[in-house]
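Lab notebook, bench 4. Still working through the backlog of constructs that have no structural model yet. Next entry is a single chain of 293 residues. Request: give me the structure tokens for it.
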Amino acid sequence: MNKLIVGLVQQSCTADRDANLEKSISGIRKAASNDAQLVVLQELHLGPYFCQTEDPARFDLAEPIPGPATDALASVARELNVAIVGSIFERRAAGLYHNTAVVLDRDGSLAGIYRKMHIPDDPGYYEKYYFTQGDLGFRPVSSSTGRLGVLVCWDQWYPEAARLMALGGADLLIYPTAIGWEPGASETERGLMLDAWVTIQRSHAIANALPLISANRVGFEPSGNADQGQIFWGSSFIIGPQGEFLARASHDKEEVLLAQIDLAKTEAVRRNWPFFRDRRIDAYGGLLRRFQD
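Model written out:
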């Protein structure tokens, strides 16, 4: 399969889990009706981004894998013959939770999971309170649509994560995401942040000659007070292996994005830009140190 039609769902979320799931499924149906073979959902698409605050009651939102959400997505995948990348607040055991991406294959089977490796702990993003660091490493998930290098949000800032997925044989990079602005951020700062977010991911595509899908949520979500929270900036996109934009979403609307990816282009690009050939793997030992003193 050299040509792959991919889609993503950019949506807002409320506290109504069932309504959020139905909105995700509606987006999947729309993408599938336009011949999408793979559809990517945003990070934690079953509800609001609850990590803006630390609240022990939020652990009640977690569920096992397999579980209700994966069962629902599997049913849709099987019905529509489309692979789906979803995002689950995973309850692995009592007191052990992960931010986990799931891949449902076109026959409804659970092809694999990825547990978020880089966990932020910053104002508005208190994920270390909820999530244990992933323990599955950076291994692509094999599916009928290719080997999927699935990473999650904060992972998208780390070139090491993308590189290891590429070295593991990923055919494309996928980033379910939840990122936005604080309401008080200036227009200048908003522009800088968004540009940095797009640029770092384009660099991963270019450095590894891989197509990339980034699905971000959209809309304002309060953190408790009406004037505090996050304005999730949407701007989801699909790019090719030279960082070229194949499709881009708005920063403020719910959208279903579609593009055709040529998986064979990776081979052609790597022949002309032989980054893998010229890597000095004998000289990179310093990467295993926290800092070069």
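Notes after review: The chain has a mean pLDDT of 97. The domain at 3-272 is CATH 3.60.110.10 (Nitrilase/N-carbamoyl-D-aminoacid amidohydrolase). Flag for follow-up if needed.
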